[in-house]
Amino acid sequence: EAAEWLDKALRVGSESHEIQIAAFLFHHRTGDPVKAEEHLKRALALAPDAVEVLVPAAAFYLSRKDMDESDRLLRRAEAASPGNRMVLSARTSWAIVKSEPSRLEGTADELAASAGKTELDLLARAAELYLRAGRLDRADECIERLSSAPRSGGREMVDVWLDTLRGARILLEGRPYAAIPLLDRAFRRQPSGLWAAELLALAYQRTG
């Protein structure tokens, strides 16, 4: 049914970058990277400065470990829409895969600066990047800001972030037994949280 709808949409709207991106996402998710890339390139040609095209394109090339092309697309997105949350999130994923301390810290600095009193997700991601970069002092600052921030909603999600970050912080200190209860609680609250799951497995591994 989705394939039929997409085929009809492409027949009448092949010059629409929105439809080309929809086709890209469909083929990417159904495991046809060749067709996915064809539609992606068409979308980029139609709307070379559209963030809604550049970010999925950057994520696609990141998934293929083409770091240079992903970075190039993200830089275009950053120039087109400075401070855009979707772009910041994509840059975070890129920095984690790149795993260079300077890149991690630079992206964390941008996230921490962009996070206001309500953008707690950005603050949590900044803390994560600081921890990955080994900047425990800066991570502690973000964790403190996160724990003291007013919560108008989403309290449970903030608690998951705090448990995960504090567990990661303790694990980095070489105290896996102390980290396990926090990471286990975070994982039970959000089983889809991959980082908490990875950290929990690592903590158990380090207990011997």
State the shape.
elongated
Number of alpha- plus pi-helical segments: 12
What is the end-to-end distance? 51 Å
Helix amount, in percent? over 70%
Assess the beta-strand content as a share of residues: under 5%
Query: What structural class results from the helix and strand content?
Result: mainly alpha
Series of H and E elements? HHHHHHHHHHHH
Low-confidence stretches: none
Rounded mean pLDDT is 89
- Quaternary: single chain
Number of strands: 0
**Radius of gyration from CA coordinates:** 20 Å
Query: Main sheet?
Result: none
Structure description:
This protein has helices spanning about 1-15, 15-30, 35-45, 50-65, 65-80, 85-100, 100-115, 120-135, 135-150, 155-170, 175-190, 195-205. It is mainly α. The longest helix has 18 residues, at about 155-170. The termini are far apart.
